[in-house]
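Chapter review. Work through the record for MFS transporter before attempting the end-of-chapter questions.
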Amino acid sequence: MYVSVRGIPRGTGIRSRVPRVVVVLGMVSLITDVSTEMVTAVLPIYATLVLGLTPLAYGMLDGLYQGATVLVRLLGGFFADRLRRPKLVAGSGYAIGAAAKLLLLPVGGAGTLSAAVGMDRAGKGLRTAPRDVLIATAGPRDRLGRYFGVHRALDATGALLGPVVAFGLLALAPGDFDMVFVVSCCAAVLGVLLFVHHVPEHRAETEGGVSLRDVAALLRITGFRRLLCAAAVLSVATIGDGFLYLVLLRNESVTTRWFPLLFVCTSLVYLALAVPLGRVSDRYGRNRVFTAGYGLLLCAYLSAILTAGAAGAGLCLMFLGAYYAATDGVLPAAAAPLLPAELTATGISVVQAAVAGGRALGAVAFGAVWTAAEGATAVWTFAAVLAVALLTAVPMITRARDQRTEAR
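Structure tokens for MFS transporter:
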């Protein structure tokens, strides 16, 4: 069934219909992201100012935030393909994420916070690839960039609303982080209920399960292997959003009071560009748009350290949101046409796990450099690393066949 996507802001430029399941999954992600981003928006301040973590300790926490999904992403994709039940696996991930919010309530130190963050990220890792399979099998493959763009636009709307809700709650009750965590948990439960009752089970086109030998065979697919390597190389040079925002805070480009709204500004740019860049990737090549996104990320780094005040913060957030719009949904859309139907979830999970692992390493490394030197030096270091990564990845990824040809 196809529905009109009138609910998406006009700026996204969608004029055609998309499958109903894509819109429903987008609404589930919207609600779930309201829950998650409420916590994410206050986490840097809560960890560094309330719990007193050092930049290195926060880097390790951010590394856990990214890395906890690596193995679980692989398991989620593998079992979704093996069981032919992507809805069941994705639903389990949403439920684990909701349960993790309960652990935030008795937080009294870094250990409990790490457990809650790890459990939440494990739930995200478990659900991501099976959910993306439900999107990838919803309609023609030559429109996957658009479908993922619609989903990511709705997802970005939740990412936008989450920090706003957190900001409002803390404005009503300054310092009452428990209130933020309770509301976050309620929103997560609502997302689980919507997913269970309104997302249909995927009907597999093939019979029988997959084996580990089948998974290993994915690496023999040339285009997929190049995409995987390029994504992994680029992700290692990625600075977490929280760190970039802390750099802006240390540079006095923003104040503590407005810190949660930095996430909102990034999400606004992401929301505005997710669908247009998805359509551009369908037309001109998803690999090209994906690598261009990391060029935008490099611009975000340079803006954070070269331009002072509100102007620097604005440029940084604009480039950061554009980077997410050019990469987040485009990467699974680029990977899906390269994969056999029976291994789509597994292949997507392998790529996403590589990205998550690279970001985890990058988070710990960035925290270590910042602890040894200072925030600006750490950003300069990662800007240089990202420039080298781009020079390495672009030739690698452009040798793959054009995605428009592979999707047909």
